[in-house]
Amino acid sequence: MSSLPKCPQCSSEFTYEDGDNYVCPECAHEWPKVAAAAAEDVKVIRDAVGNVLQDGDTVTVVKDLKVKGSSSVVKVGTKVKNIRLVDGDHDIDCKIDGFGSMGLKSEFVKKV
Description:
Elements: E1 16-18, E2 21-23, E3 30-32, H1 33-41, E4 59-61, E5 65-66, E6 73-74, E7 79-80, E8 84-85, E9 92-96, E10 100-104, E11 109-111
Protein name: Alkylphosphonate utilization protein
Pfam families: YjdM, Zn_Ribbon_YjdM
Domain Protein YjdM N-terminal: 3-32
């Protein structure tokens, strides 16, 4: 798997390095490696109402969430302490009392 960033203009995954720049072969866009490194460090994860989330925050669930592989549901208002932010489809790793470890999407939680 390539660790090169996607093209900022067309989101192509087929970028390549050329000296101190990255180049997109699909749209011919070129951008410096320094700018790409700064953009990757600035990823901000926000909750359902737009608050910035950080590791260790406490959040509450804003919608009933079905638990995959189970018939149980995480109810609205469930408090989740000490979240951990991760990359991926579900950007929060946490432990919920009565359910155990699971991944949540930030769009379904609100910072307390």
